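Regression report. Comparing outputs from two consecutive submissions.

Submission 1:
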Amino acid sequence: MTQPIIAILRGLTPTDALAVGEALIDAGIDRIEVPLNSSDPLESIRLMATAFAGRATIGAGTVLTVEDVARVADVGGRMIVSPNTNPEVIRETRRLGLESYPGVFTATECFAAIAAGATGLKLFPADQAGTVALKALRAVLPRDMSVYAVGGVGPNNFADWIAAGAQGFGIGSSLYKPGDSADQVGQRAREMVAALPA
């Protein structure tokens, strides 16, 4: 079953990509991003997109340019996640048939992202915005627009964010750090999934 978590594997290497990806999928986390400031990120994305086709949505994070979108699409990535709202990046992502999750912080950014065709919104950094800000944003955002809280979120506050209107979460270093074994990642992933409100 798909869980409302996007795994952020910053620093992942191609050597570890398949084992870590398999551990996440086995735990129920089947949306995985490899930030482009990782080591050889396109190769990691290519390996996972090929191996997990039909089982998981693999994509890139920290995507800042239209050229990066094309590179991710060329290796089979299906999801583009950015720290910012760049309408050109969003439009190109959607034109290529990929999912788009731009970073937003203000109402202006939210609606610019929606107008450009965003699949969902990444509230970042969520811990700086806080649940009060999300609740205010949810009052004006379209009901069918998903918001993922990213940055400073975890099992101890999942329920608070969901109550404020989050549909999901992006989880990075508390799920994966470079050098972690697949077993470690899988254990953390299972614990996070278990912590999600029923």
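Submission 2:
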Amino acid sequence: MTFPKDFLWGGATAANQYEGGYLSGGKGPSTLDAITGGSHTKPRMITYKTKDGKIETCGRGDALPEGAVGYIDPETYYPSHVATDFYHHYKEDIALFAEMGFKCFRLSIAWSRICPKGTKEVNEEGLSFYDNVFDELLSHGIEPIVTINHFDIPMYLADELDGWSSRETIDHFLFFCETLFTRYKNKVKYWMTFNEINFLRSWTQIGIHDNSKQSKYQAAHHLFVASGKAVTLGHQINPDFKIGMMVAYIPSYPMSCKPEDVMEALTFNREQEFYMDVQVKGYYPKHKLKEFEREGITIKKEAGDDAIIASGTVDYIGFSYYMSTVSASDPTDVKYVGGNQMPAVKNPYLEESEWGWAVDPLGLRIALCKLEDRYHIPLFVVENGFGAVDKVEADGTIQDDYRIDYFKKHIAAMKDAVELDGVDLIGYTPWGCIDIVSAGTGEMKKRYGFIYVDMDDEGNGTLKRSKKKSFDWYQKVIATNGENLTEM
């Protein structure tokens, strides 16, 4: 067989898009609890309160005014408050994952469920909830894969400390990590520190009020130090822990063989690789230091920061792969289309999803090869999937052959990377294995899952779970360890 006998087949979710239970069980608010829903044409918005008490809104990637704090309007719909309610449906959902044959399940832990303000106060009810989740997974033979922080921060830390702009947030995060590592040291083996660290920005995701490059990269430095400390701490608590990083990887091709286009693609790819270079190799690459010098960016470090980063390198790279993009030196030559957390340049050789995302299975093999050649540590595809509008037929079935086709081609590309290129790949967890709220648009109609959840964009629905056609297909893929990609 191509894939190792212990290959980790499963699925992936995030607490803020799936868990719900907004303030249940002692949970505190997080930044994403103040983000509204959206659509193709209606952007997601932050609700906030100004220093003089006015209630305002701004785009989810915008900077909040100085002194502004997050605000949750009781008359506004916020998707994270219920999402698709794993909090109350975890046993039912895990039973469905087990029926599909999952070997692992990637989930994130809501920081504000464990530490309601993000500070050093622990909510025992929150810890018990995840105890129950992990016990349920393990009873079905499913390995938990835990993302420690996935795209949000407790609202108190954002409002009172300016989030990851503050050095103090590192200490609060380390307390959170130590609490998790100690409590779950015999239940969780695989961890990742930050989700898509290269996409973390703004008040929404890291609690900062200033979106300048100076502020962004200073916050990134604090994230690097926090990750390095967390890796070292985790290995001290349990040497068997496997602690990885997670990056959104979107390989970019040059628009042509014109050297200027090739240089544009190199520059684009370097920005993603920068975050892996620091966390895998343990130091800032020279090209990034030169960029800081040119642009007048000064990273404030404390004594020992470089040593912390160097000694706290990760055990594996987890990455998301949804699409590729194209780079061109002349912006008049390109057409922009949809993309994961950013606009992407249209590739005339590729088809696109309903949301404009390029569908490029071979790009996954290319990504795996590039990462294997550059880093020489195990790789884990922890997100990959196809957002689409699913139709429930009169008989209740969902015939999502388009999703099956997408996964079939991407798994085939992974097989080639392992069998033909020798890539060390340890697992595959498709994104949104059950329907969840879209991170980019806040919609429910943009569905990824093998399991349908009855919930609409306005938060209406029964939350009933039902299997899509892809459920049975993925079940067969797992049962054959990826060898059977065609038969149902």
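Expected: both submissions complete independently.
Actual: both completed, but the second showed a warning that disappeared on reload.
Relevant detail on submission 2: The longest strand covers residues 143-149.
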